[in-house]
Each structure stands twice: as structure tokens, then as C-alpha cells.
Here is the input.
Amino acid sequence: MTKITTQKKYAQPEVVDCWKNLSREGLQQCEQEMVARYFTAQGCYLDVGCGAGRAVLALSQTGCQVTGIDLSLPMLAAGRSLSAAARLGAANLLALPFADDTFDGVLMFFGALQHIPGQDNRRQAMVEMARVSQPQSRLVLGLDNLAPALLCYFYWLTQKVRSSKRLTPAAPAPEHPNAADTTLWSRETRHVNPLIWHVRGLARSLRWRTWPNLVDLSRRLNLFPDRAERGDVLVAQFSLQTTPGRIYYHIYRAAELIEDAAFAGWQLLGHHSGTELNEDRIYPPAVRGRDKQQFFAFEKGSGTQ
Here is the structure.
């Protein structure tokens, strides 16, 4: 499949329509939890890589003042079609068109940062987000890990076995569907057999993780020298269906992101996986870092410029 630019991918009608529909649905539970934990109810925030305005529209309804920026003009047009009052504009993350100390916080869901090639450029984006943020303001990032790793499936399966042993046939049904059984087998929301969903997830994990890991190994061993960095991949699917053309994507390791953020003056407040936030649980660090969605919260140091 041919490599194309990020802007071309996010201008494809199928991709735009997908994210426009998601904007109607609002934030995921894990995203709502991150906002509740790290942002105040009233504030002026910047949504970087806002797409069709999903977070802008959702948070604006709660009383926040949210400005969204994106490079994709079709995405921004889709957002404006949903709300003419939405504050949406075109801007480059490497040179934000805002004065210093403008915002009370910055958020980024679904990893616009991951579309930026080169560590130096990603760090510059972090610096820009710090520049336009007030001291002690928060940065909330949601990154996509593409697919849960095999380690996650093994962990969830062992939790399922332990949970099954604790439950008895006479035990009353929990009031909340995830109250007693919050493991892998209860994760299905698309009304298909859990076993089918489970196998599909494993297959996707092998396809989206094993190959990139082998490529990274070749880079570390210098078997096939190139200018790419560890974690660099090309991905085609950014909507419910795969569309033509693959674009650049960087799969972050948690320690790498924390280091890049520290370079820009951001201090780590919390690291969570999407599943942890959805289920109000805490995973071992190794499992957390391999889950599909990664969430980070940082605070800007008082001396950061």
C-alpha cells in the first residue's frame, strides 16, 4: 500500500465521516475520567489535533472554553457543520499561533503527536504546548498503542480465571455489568461472540505489534540501517474501515514519552491505560504500558518558558 501524507489520509471522505460520527458521540469513558481527574470544571483549554471537534464539542457543553486546532481542513469543516459556534482553526503543532501562557491546559486524544516524524520535532511540539500554557497547568495526552499486546491478553485471562473461581452459581448478579467480571471476556460491546472478539484481538496484536517489534529489533541491531526511529510504523486504518494509503505513526514507549515531556518542562502526574480508567482498576506497569490506549497527565513547571 502506498505511503501518503497525514493530511491526505485525514481528508479522505470515509475517514472524515467516521470522525464526524464519533464527534456526535462525545468522549469515551476513559477520556472523561482523565478530564475529571486532571482538569477543573471551568477553564480555557487547547485541544491539539482536534479532528472533527469531538473533545471540543463535548467539553464545551460542560462549561469549559475549548479551542481546537488541526491541520486537516475537511476535518475542521466537519466539526463546524456540527456546531457553528465551535472554536476550530487550522494550525501547525510545531508553531502554535497563540501567545505565551494563554491556556489553563492542553489536551490531545488519539495522538496527533504520533503523526510527527522525528524525536526532535515531537519534542518541539511538547515545547510549544508548554509555551502556550500557564505555569502549573496540565497536559493530558491520549495515545494509541494500535492493539493490546499478548501480555495484556494473558493478564486479563488469568484475572478471568481467578474471578471465576471466586464466584459461585448462587451469587447474585452484579448491578453494574462490569462490577464483578471486568476482564477480557466482558469487554465486547459490538454484540459478537466473546471468543470471536478475543481471537480477533490476538490476531490484530500479532499483526500490529509483532512486525513493528521485529523491525525495531533490526534497527537496534543495525541489520538494515535506515533513518527511521524505534517505534516508527506505517498504518492504514484511521476509521472503522481501512482506506487507501499508509501514513506515518510513532508507537511511544511510556518511558520515551515521559522523557520527551520532561525535556519540554512537563512533569508527570499520572500514567494510566484506557482499560484501567474504564474499569477503575490498577494494572501492573508492564501490562499498563502494553494496553491499547495510553493516557498521561503532566504539569508544567513554574520555571518553564
